[in-house]
Amino acid sequence: MVVPAGSELRTALSAIRKGSAPDSAFQRAVTDAARRRGSSVGGWYLETHDLAHAPLPEELWRAAAPELSIAITHYQAPGGAWGQYVVLILNLASADLTAATEPPLTARRAAVYH
């Protein structure tokens, strides 16, 4: 199930647009979502130039009943010649993702357990 982006992801998108590093903004979103829900939250962020070919983490396809919140923004890394997309994915029902394998290099995984 995909749910609307919560306040944590909206805050992360705003921070990225204002110049925060995507990994820091994403980790903050995961931590804040876990704190607000009082339960484990996992997720990933991806950086890509082409959304149609962005490698989604394999754990998404193996999850039994994910509750996903997804947000996308444009980002230009400091010193970068071109911008790219940043895709933030939170799994608010992450219990089935905690034993996941290593994600591809283009995906970063984060989890906060309560």
Q: Provide the gyration radius in Å.
A: 13 Å
- The N- and C-terminal alpha carbons lie at a distance of 22 Å
CATH architecture: 2-Layer Sandwich
Shape: globular
Mind describing the biggest β-sheet?
A: 5 strands, mixed
Report strand order across the widest sheet: 1-3-4-2-5
Assign the CATH class.
Alpha Beta
Number of discrete domains: 1
String of helices and strands: EHHEHEEE
Poorly predicted runs of 5 or more residues: 96-107
Average predicted confidence as pLDDT: 77
Q: Within the CATH hierarchy, at the fold level, what is the topology?
A: Ribosomal protein S3 C-terminal domain
Structural class: alpha+beta
> Which percent band covers the strand fraction?
25-35%
Helix count equals 3
The number of strands is: 5
Top keywords for this entry?
single chain, 114 residues, alpha+beta, Ribosomal protein S3 C-terminal domain, 3 helices, 28% strand, globular
Tell me what the structure shows.
With 114 residues, this protein is an alpha+beta fold. It has a single domain (2-112), classed as Ribosomal protein S3 C-terminal domain (2-Layer Sandwich). Helix content is 28%, strand content 28%. It contains 3 helices and 5 strands. It has helices at residues 7-17, 22-37, 58-62, and strands at 2-3, 41-48, 68-75, 84-91, 107-112. The chain has a 5-stranded mixed sheet with strand order 1-3-4-2-5. The longest helix has 16 residues, at 22-37. It starts with a strand and ends with a strand.
